[in-house]
Structures are given as C-alpha cells and as structure tokens.
From TrEMBL:
Residues 11-78 form the HTH gntR-type domain. InterPro entries: Bact_HTH_transcr_reg, Chorismate_lyase_/UTRA_dom_sf, Tscrpt_reg_HTH_GntR, UTRA, WH-like_DNA-bd_sf, WH_DNA-bd_sf. It holds the Pfam family UTRA. This is GntR family transcriptional regulator. CDD domains: WHTH_GntR (cd07377). Keywords: DNA-binding, Transcription, Transcription regulation.
Amino acid sequence: MGTTQLESVQEPKYWHLKTVLSEALDSEFSVGEILPNERDLAARFGVARATLRQALEQLELEGRLQRRRGVGTTVAPPRMGVSLGTGPHTWPGGSEDAWQPVDCTAAVPPAAVADALETGRDEPVHIVRRSRVSHGRPVAAELLYIPQPSVPELSGIDAPSGAAHARAVLRELQRLEPERQENAVELGSAGADEAKELDRLPGAPVLVVTTRFFAGGRTAALSVATYRADTCRLTFGDSGGVEIHAGIQRQAS
C-alpha cells in the first residue's frame, strides 16, 4: 500500500481512505491475506486510528474485509451471487446443487409457511436444514419445508437421522415433475439461530430469499434461505440456482 495525501480532500477522510484501501486490496492483496495491524496502517497513511477504523468498518460492511477473532482483518472472498432467473426449474438436492444437507426433522412449521404450503397449521412437515459454504466460511443457511404428500414413499426408505435423512427426503422429492417456482427477496436481520450458523452477531443484515416450488398444481416445497448480506449480491438473468461470481464481483448490483 502506498501513502496518499488526505489533507485537501473535501469528502470525509475515512471515506477517501476507504477508496484508497479498496484499490490497494485489489492490486496488492489476495483473498484470505491478513492486513497489517491498525497502528501500522494508520502510520502509513498518516491518519488517526479512529479514522482508519471507520474506513475498515465501511469496507467490512461492503464485504471487502472480514474481521475474525484471533486472526485479524483479512481480505474477504468475492461475493456470492444469488441468481433469480427464469431458467429451467430443478428441485433442491440435484447434482449441481452446492448446498450441503445438515439434518431433517418432522415438525409443525410456522403458520405463514403452513399457509403457503396449504397444509393444516397443526400438520407436521419435513424440515430439511442445509448450509452453504464459500471459501471455507458459512455464507447461507436454509430451511426447506416439504409436506408429506410431496414425498409419499419416504416411509419405505431406510433413512437414518441427520444428513442422511435429509438426503433421502431430497432424493424422494426428485420424483416429482417440477412446474415452476417463485422467488421473493427481502432484507432482514439475523436472529439468534441464523447468526450462530452464519458466524455473525444477532441483528446482522441478511438477505432472505423465499422460493416456492410447484408441482401437480400445488406448492410442493418451500425454501427460506438466509444469506449473509456482506457476502452476497443479487443477480437477475436466465440462469437458475446460486452461482459463485469470481470476476465482476465489485460492481454494484
């Protein structure tokens, strides 16, 4: 990183410093590399440590940096693109699905989910929990709600508990012929469970993508996927699923 003159800049010093640091991250650092400590960086750029912290905090919010306890401040990997397209519809758990199953339970879903699935509010459904990891860190957590009629032959499958049970439910779901799916996106904040899974503090900003899968004229499954807002960006096109973007990840979406 080279030094720069900040005294004559009209914009806030921390904002200009953030721009300089961002350019240095692109040209001098690689993903996962640890930045020098705050004292050295502040001295190098001739700014107060408070100004430096403001710039680093802004870069963290933008997903450029990641602060890890016991490690320091590292360069974050590219944002993961959440693609909301109109391409071929496939069921979760297919061969190209990057989600990893964690476990599966049978339980009564939240009332809003039961209404979307058009099941009774007291009727248990299969709840598959899955996770998504990018560059060794958790970036998304999903709850996939599947009503009993969508997997009618599941009782005949020898499925143990945990991830194996989740995979068995997803395999059975593949038997249905997909018709269409609908996506909805909203900005939210991480609850205690989501924060723990995503390695964030409760209240951290997240993107919540709800997907309804249709088959046989009804909702066959409903996915509620929670993405870290500092690691993901929305993309719109004809491709479906979730893609990893390694090229133009710094452009605004």
